[in-house]
Structure formats: structure tokens, C-alpha cells
Amino acid sequence: MTPTHRIFPYNDIWLDCVNNNLMSILISHNSSFEKLPLTFKTQYWKKLINQTFPEDNFESLLHQGLMLPKVQYDTEQLYHYLRFEDQLLEQSDIPFLDVIIQSALDKKKYVFLDVDRFFYSSGRESGKIHFIHPTFIHGKCASGDAYTVIEDCLSPGRMHDYQTPLEVIMESTQYLIKSGKKKLDS
Length: 186
What we know:
6-stranded antiparallel β-sheet, two-stranded antiparallel sheet, alpha+beta, globular, 186 residues
């Protein structure tokens, strides 16, 4: 599948951050994929929480992505339509990371790169906590200094178009390699 198609965030059903992005990819190529989640096996989980929340705090939790009850979708079918390649990144790859990502995009591939949201310029975790998350890169900004991604960093459970500066990706990748967590999926 080629990243030449315009990708829109998929928010019809919340599967999870990766699978919602995979749905975005499939739908960009054929709109009939919008109905694919209707065929997924589904489990509904009822959680009892022995905790009360003040009215104002509960509203805050809802806006931050508190999702009750839990619904578990079997998304295995998504993987029948896509092919994945993993690439481990090493310290020596850091100076060439932009070239590696751009090369994958030039080969008409989509890229999922683990990025630590601590290094993001905005979002819930920005500068607060280290939260390693697979980031869906589907293009590069015209200026060349940022990648176009679809992320749920602004509000959990809701995908947004987002611009991630190259320096954030470089800094995060450097941190992750030092931490021993280094993967690029395309």
C-alpha cells in the first residue's frame, strides 16, 4: 500500500492506537474497509470500581480518556491485508534517521516508530513523563523539518493529525536506543 493516498484519522470505533491507524491506512486505499470492524469478534468487559469520584474530577477523567466499560476487539483480520517489516535501530543510525524514514516513505511504505512522548512539544505527556508509543508516520511536512503523523497524544482514545518535528524524533530515538528500546516498523 502506498502512502500517496491522503490519510485521515480513524475515530469511528476505538480499537487501539495502532489498529486505528491501520484502519486509516486501509480506508485510504478502499473505503469499503470502513465496515471491517463490524466483522471483528468482540468481548465486553464489565469492570466494577470500588471508588467514587467527585463530580468535577470524574468529568476531568472522562476528558482524559477514561473509557468504561471496556470493549476488546479481535483485530487479527487487519493483519491479513498488510505486510510488515521490522528494523532495529542502532546508535550509528541516529545521524541517518531522517534518511531512513524518508527512504521508507519514498518506497511507498508507512512507518511506525516508537517515540517517547516526553520529548513532544505538546500533548499530555510532553515534558512530564516518559511514555513510549508507536507513532504512525505517513509523510513529511513541506518545510522538511517535521513529519506528519496520526497520534492520540492530545486526547487518549481520539486520533488527531499531528506534526512531529524531526528534532523530537531524533532526541527520542537517541533516548530509546540508550534505554535498549529501538524499533522501526514499516
